[in-house]
Amino acid sequence: MGSPPAQWMFVVDIEDFRHWSKEAANWGADYRASLPDLPVRPDIQPGDISKQIEESPPEHAESMDALFADFQEKIIPGITHWQHPGFFAYFPSNAAPAAVVADYLVTAISAQCMLWQTSPAATELETKMIDWLRQAMGLPKPFTGVIQDSASSATLTAILTMRERALAFSGNKQGLTSQPRLRIYASDQVHSSIDKAIWVAGIGDENLVRVPTSGPLRSMDTEALEKAIIEDREKGYLPAGIIGCVGGTSVGATDDIAAICEVAQRQELYHHVDAAWAGSAMICEEFRDLWSGIEGADSIVFNPHKWLGAPFDCSVQFLKDPTDQIKTLSIQPEYLKTLGQSDLINYSEWTVPLGRRFRALKLWFLMRAYGLGGLRSRIRNHVKWCSDVCEGLRDTKGFEITSEPILALFSFRHVPAGMTDDEALDAHNLRLVEAINRDGRIYLTQTKLDGQTAIRFTVGQFDVTEAYVLSAVYIVREIAEKIESVSE
Ligand code: PLP
């Protein structure tokens, strides 16, 4: 048997690949430059895109020219532009240019990084990037971690770990049918990903105990938390863990993490903290008061794909000690063993999915291309400019601030003169948010706060300018005036 042939791919394919990769990169740069001229959210109806796509796959190959043209004509008009400077909705899903380049490279390589040996560089860079971020965020040394696809997955793994710890690691083997009823505790402000993880882990929604919140940060009442745990034990339930919240989705609710850690310690419960959005801000020392006591938590999730600048998907789960999570999720059939080496890190044993993308590269590019200094100054600017927009609306007749800024998120509502009925105000503010989004210059989303509709405003676009952010005040005022005069 000789060597494999040197030319193992049709040359024409390689040259096509080179050409179209360059076209894609050029298109990406032009796209980013053109964003301010596009409406943030497309003004289209459900089905508008679908009706342009063939009903069945083609039997014969089509040219890349045709594909590229269709991408631009049929797909782009149906995209909501998350990298648009006027995107102030949900939370950001940033993609810093240098980190996008890293993701192009990752896709070109397309390694499946489930085990150390399926791409040693991916595993070893992941370990380093977790440690870089640990240092950047001021977490102490025992913390290590893993990169997951999303905060939802990280929270699911934490809840599975809580479940298995509480059941002395018998749940995976015996199932949950004849086990005591498990209980998980979280505030009434946590993201729906916590509810979903409770469902998927087989614990059941009724066993997610929602502890009331109060105060300007809408923090969990930790006395009520401990009381609920003690009472549950008396009733024969099996408390398994607590989820803390730093920077909740609705209006940035933030628990007293130090106080929850004390309860968790006294009650010997596992404590996972969801800081999916706010975690990025912890690279700035002055914001760390918000999660004071965090070193006492067992597991922390934050999404560099939200505010830090790593393209989706990239969610970091820090773990004080990964042993219990690995014990919960590790499974090693013969075909996944690395011969002769049993002491390697295989990150797929830390997570639910086996297959893993090479996500560490974009973090490496991100932190090196901008430096922590560059990332910090962006986050500090976002927080400052968000506060300026808040003040601009507070000073505008007819606007009320419904929740004060927490980092770079606040909420408001418009109260036209003489409109006092709650239902009318809710309907008016929904009309306002829809009118703003149809206008297309900026994009906002609504929430419910103490039963009333409020409009959220969050700043986080990686390269947004102060002028663009502040223009939002004028746009919101202008559209509010317009819809007020129409309804008069
Ligand atoms: N936790 C919080 C506070 C969030 O805001 C979100 C999403 O916005 C999530 C969790 C879920 O994040 P992911 O989409 O990464 O699962």
Give a brief outline of the structure.
The chain has 14 helices and 13 strands.
Describe the protein's architecture and organization:
With 488 residues, the protein is of the alpha/beta class. It contains 14 helices and 13 strands. It has helices at 11-34, 64-75, 97-109, 120-136, 151-166, 171-174, 192-200, 222-234, 257-266, 304-308, 323-329, 360-394, 422-439, 466-487, and strands spanning 144-148, 182-187, 208-211, 213-214, 219-220, 238-245, 270-274, 299-302, 315-319, 399-406, 409-414, 445-449, 452-458. The strands form three sheets. The chain has a seven-stranded mixed beta sheet, sandwiched between helices. A four-stranded antiparallel beta sheet has the order 10-11-13-12. The longest helix has 35 residues, at 360-394. The radius of gyration is 25 Å and the shape is globular. The model has no long low-confidence stretch (mean pLDDT 94).
